[in-house]
Amino acid sequence: MSDEAAAPAKKKGGKMKKIIFFVILPLILIGGGVGAGVFAAGKLTSHASGPKLDPNRPKLVLKEGESGPVDLAPGQQPNPAIYKSTYVPMDQPFTSNLRDTDGYLQLGVGVSTLYDQKVTDHLKDSDMPIRAAVLEVLAQQSAETLNTPQGKAALRQQLKLAINRVLEQREGFGGIDDVYFTSFIIQ
Predict the structure, then answer these.
(1) Are residues 97 and 180 in the same domain?
(2) Cβ neighbours of residue 184 under 8 Å, at least 6 residues apart?
(3) Are residues 6 and 92 in the same domain?
(4) Which whole number is the average pLDDT over 155-176?
(5) Residues whose CB is less than 8 angstroms from the CB of residue 81 and which lie 6 or more positions away in sequence, other chains included
(6) How many domains does the chain have?
(7) Which terminus, N or C, of the chain has the lesser number of Cβ atoms within 10 Å?
């Protein structure tokens, strides 16, 4: 009789072990994995210090006697009054057919940046893709539009965006603040 009473107790213990092994233990492991993943992704870290910036990112160059931050968060625009501009001419002029006409545009371009030598190095390293992007923008222009001051200003803005887009894709950082025409010929 004592053997019969012990047998049902073992079955209950066996069910409890199965519940722990197949239900509770996996839940603990899954919860731990989720917690570790969230921690590794940085979701539980303090945001008081602001967004993390790449330490190899180009730095702003202050004008003599000025003070201010040399690294801004993405999306923040630097104040050109306190930072030094560096002007970089593009080595060769650009020649492109104009849209809907037999005419063409020959354009000399220079750019400016408020950032350090890294941006100018990136410009030289990415010369060919930048030239291709500039030529794509030029091919979309019409002579009538480019003969107006507003058309020239719009072209400068389009070129700035195209050059920064190439630099961001290739180098992870744009940094071009303005585009200037060093020559401008429409025929």
Answers:
(1) yes
(2) 105, 106, 107, 108, 152
(3) no
(4) 95
(5) none
(6) 2
(7) N
Q: Where are the alpha helices (DSSP H) in 20-73?
A: 25-40
Structural domain of 110: 86-186
- Percent of the chain scoring above 90 in pLDDT: 50
Give residue for tokens 């410009």: 123
Alpha-carbon distance of 153 to 27, in angstroms, equals 62
pTM here is 0.69
Tokens of 49: 């210090």
* CATH number of residue 100's parent domain: 3.30.479.30
Cα separation of 129 and 18, whole Å?
A: 63
Concatenated DSSP letters of 82-127: TB--EEEE-SS-EEEEPTTSS-EEEEEEEEEESB-HHHHHHHHHTH
